[in-house]
Specification:
178 residues, Four Helix Bundle (Hemerythrin (Met), subunit A), 9 helices, hydrolase, DinB-like, mainly alpha, single chain, hydrolase activity
Length: 178
């Protein structure tokens, strides 16, 4: 398997100009399902598996799970900012450095899975309450200067959810850990 396939097992995120209500609903369902998918896949993994990188020079599964929790907490906050402020500039963070912090390298994944469970419950509740006007609200990412609509943010985090789940799932498949 080549490195690009290992990096992007479902391909890179491709933004659309518009998302239908059915696409938004489907993307919210993908976000909603992630904590359970991680629990079902990783629930019985021991430290040796959790400390295995999903690709050469990649994060370990432990770092990956903690990254997803960090990322989705930020995404939830960014959605709330966009819903309550006029096109706010969000705060970026250095995800690669966060993944190197001691807690990301050593903490049990159950901590981040529980964070994901509860953040996703709140986030999905919020996302499901949004109407077309809400979905059109925006924020600015200062690293790119780009404005993101919330319907695109939802699609991006649905992709992000499956993207990182597949990192772990494909590693399990390659190593016959299923």
């Amino acid at each position: 398997m080549d490195i690009e396939q290992l990096k992007y097992p479902i391909g890179k995120f491709v933004s659309q100009e518009h998302y239908t209500p059915a696409e938004v609903k489907s993307n919210i369902q993908i976000i909603s399902a992630l904590p359970s998918k991680f629990i079902n896949l990783l629930g019985n993994w021991e430290n040796d598996r959790l400390d295995t990188p999903y690709r050469p020079d990649g994060w370990t599964i432990r770092q990956l799970v903690h990254h997803v929790a960090d990322s989705h907490i930020n995404a939830y906050t960014r959605c709330r900012l966009a819903l309550t402020e006029d096109n706010p500039v969000i705060k970026p963070y250095e995800e690669h450095l966060w993944a190197e912090l001691p807690d990301a390298k050593t903490a049990q994944i159950e901590l981040s899975i529980q964070l994901l469970r509860y953040v996703h419950l709140r986030w999905v509740l919020l996302l499901n309450s949004m109407d077309e006007t809400d979905l059109a609200r925006t924020y600015i990412h200062p690293a790119t200067g780009r404005t993101f609509r919330l319907d695109e943010v939802i699609a991006n985090y649905a992709w992000h959810s499956e993207h990182h789940y597949q990192h772990a799932f494909q590693l399990a498949k390659r190593n016959n850990w299923e």
